[in-house]
Amino acid sequence: MQDALGIGSAAWKEIKGLIDAKQYLSAAGAIAIAGGIATNPIAIAIFVATCGSSSAS
Fold first, then answer.
1. Start-end of H helices in 1-57
2. From CA 8, how far away is CA 14, in angstroms rounded?
3. How far apart are CA 36 and CA 39, in angstroms?
4. What is the rounded CA–CA span in Å between residue 19 and residue 49?
5. CA-to-CA distance for 38 and 10, rounded, in angstroms?
6. Cα(35)–Cα(37) distance, rounded to whole angstroms?
7. Three-state SS for 23?
């Protein structure tokens, strides 16, 4: 995912920590800042779609 987003390892560690803490909106914001908002909107959309909270059944 780090390569797909085009971000460095330090930024990825921070983002991974946010994901592990279930701070998905913060992680998406960090991805937008680290990767450039206009550069990778598709990658951000995929991240949000795959890492967002799941519905209870």
1. 2-5, 9-20, 24-35, 41-51
2. 10
3. 5
4. 13
5. 21
6. 6
7. coil
Q: Is 5 exposed, middle or buried (0-12, 13-18, 19+ CB in 10 A)?
A: buried
Compute how many other C-beta atoms are within 10 angstroms of the C-beta atom of residue 24. 15
Answer for the pair 48, 24: CB distance below 8 angstroms, yes or no: yes
Task: State phi, psi for 16 to the nearest 5 degrees.
Answer: -60, -40
d(CA 56, CA 15): 25
φ, ψ for residue 6, nearest 5 deg: 70, 40
Residue 38 has pLDDT above 70, yes or no: no
List pLDDT tens digits, range 11-30: 888 888 988 998 888 888 88
51 in Cβ contact with 15 (< 8 Å) = no
